[in-house]
Amino acid sequence: MTSESPQTDSPATTAATLQVWIDQDLCTGDGLCVQYAREVFEMDLDGLAYVKDDTDELLLAPGAKTPVREDLVRDVIASAQECPGRCIHVENIATGEAVAGPSAPAGPVGN
Question: What is the dotted CATH code of the domain comprising 14-100?
Answer without folding.
Answer: 3.30.70.20
